């Protein structure tokens, strides 16, 4: 049953991606509206799936790497939709939709479909709070990287005196992309900080210590410092534009690497399947 | 004689402005001119006058287009005091399909000097409103203009014909929109008070620029322009400190060497905390060193770059115009179909009434006998006669319509059928059906024996 929901969601995302890409390629205009609706439909279907699996597990369904990816795909789709619709940046969809597809595809293929037995240690009210903050932070940093990528593409084309795509004149300005990049970073940083704090409180409540220097925690701390430095360079030194965009993408690459590495290779409370 | 829609006039393609300006009507003169035209040209039944800086056109409906053109040309020459010989050779005339197509193309801005420019639609709406006010627009023109407006809207929605910048100053302003989100909090610095710089500054102000600094070698020029544009003049010797305030710098100096180079600008960028700067160099020789473009968050466009943007947009618009042409062609066919149907409408209505009257008359005559029948049988007779009449009508009407599609004159066939049937009705009062062989043959012209009957 669940598999159908996810397959349908994937289909919606795929059509959405095709719509955004077609508009961007200039083959047909005015597709971004339908593409946004499809993105929303995919997120809605995923909500149904998450709800059902959540009820089954008695908590947010993030017991293994695959499930975490599925949850991340859902958060990214929703946050991306907000950017596309509320901040009128359909060009973001060109990147968001495929990334959601990849995350959901890998997640759905690798997650355990067996009846989920939530380990006793994870049955806690802290779990949804901690995980949602952490993954929402991840999604916002990811969107910041996408916005930065669009910025770099546009900046390059403007410097090279080439027209921006899509050619319908509704492309977001560099200033707007830069501002939204900053806001995404700021919100992502807040989420990451809250994830760290809630994780520490949860660890203290369960194991009696805030911090245990396991790989996930060390990497997260490093990433927290990198993002702190990124925000600091903008606020204090005034780095913005290309430099800020390049750094945003670089730090996000580290984040993805550590997420994948820690989840797949390392052991500990965050790694593997929480055994 | 059959009515046809026509349009004739002069436009920017064949007629120089020296003649167009003498033929053109001011906005306020058109309603009165239309009334005079209607009097002077009785061959024209409906008429509208389109007068813009690029075209003076008379559009109307007439039964005799040669005569109509003759009368209208004479009117135009007399009314405007222009020798008709001076414009007669460049006058173009379109009729029927070509006229409709011309109107739709004008409305969709395909016939404009700058393809896709948006003003023409407003001007066309104005021309229509004036014809409506003068009472010279009838059924055909009302419909034609309304279709032209909706074609224009469709073209605008379905193509990118109005996109891109088609002048250097528009290209500069377009670039500002790609770099800056809002212009309200930005500062513009004009270095040199040239005409192009002024035009660009005006366009930027229209889009919300509040703060405008102007410097010029001749301080008086800067002051004069600052007064005109509500800006601030700054002395040319000391404009460097103002550079860090400027988000958009426009250079239009006649200078042999660049006035801004990368070395002194490095400090400016740092002082600006890397906020982006758009530098527009309208000067030849160039005012800004081209190496500025490779500096962080600096976007430098010189006059050639801007011209390239303009050329690109014009090329894009021409490509989009091809899509627009096919939309126009579809709409023209739809309109002509309506127009054709319009000719047949009165005749078809008369034929229907005549035949139906005939049936009722016949039933009435046998009323006494019908009343003696059982209600079920009466109904069967009723439906039998109705079926017979409908079959007959269907043959006649589809024959007329098909005749139209084949190119033979459906109106003619319809007219014959109409006369025939009403004559029959009139003579029927004498009690006998009287169709002579000749008229029956005429009537058969539009009939297609091989057509399928539809229920």
What does this structure look like?
- The complex is a heterodimer of chains A (275) and B (455).
- Chain A is mostly helical.
- Chain A has one domain (2-111, 127-264).
- Chain A has helices at 2-24, 32-57, 65-86, 93-110, 126-159, 174-207, 215-237, 242-264.
- In chain A, helix 7 (215-237) packs antiparallel against helix 8.
- Chain A starts with a helix and ends in an 11-residue tail after the last helix.
- The model of chain A has no long low-confidence stretch (mean pLDDT 86).
- Chain B is α/β, with parallel strands linked by helices and 455 residues long.
- Chain B has three domains: 4-158, Beta Polymerase, domain 2 (2-Layer Sandwich), CATH 3.30.460.30; 168-307, Rossmann fold; 366-446, no CATH class.
- Helices cover 57% and strands 12% of the residues of chain B.
- Chain B has 17 helices and ten strands.
- At the A-B interface, helix 5 and helix 6 of A face helix 8 and helix 13 of B.
Tell me the layout of helices and strands.
The complex is a heterodimer of chains A (275) and B (455).
Chain A: H1 2-24, H2 32-57, H3 65-86, H4 93-110, H5 126-159, H6 174-207, H7 215-237, H8 242-264
Chain B: E1 4-11, H1 17-23, H2 30-40, E2 44-51, E3 55-62, H3 65-80, H4 84-88, E4 92-95, H5 96-107, H6 119-134, H7 139-158, H8 168-179, E5 187-191, H9 195-206, E6 211-215, H10 219-229, E7 232-233, H11 240-243, E8 248-251, H12 262-271, E9 277-281, E10 298-302, H13 303-365, H14 367-371, H15 375-405, H16 410-428, H17 437-443
Parallel strand pairs in B: 5-6, 5-8, 6-7, 8-9, 9-10
Antiparallel strand pairs in B: 1-3, 1-4, 2-3
Helix pairs in contact in B: 2-3, 2-6, 5-7, 5-13, 6-7, 7-13, 8-9, 8-13, 13-15, 13-16, 15-16
Give a nutshell description of this structure.
The complex is a heterodimer of chains A (275) and B (455). Helices cover 74% and strands 0% of the residues of chain A.
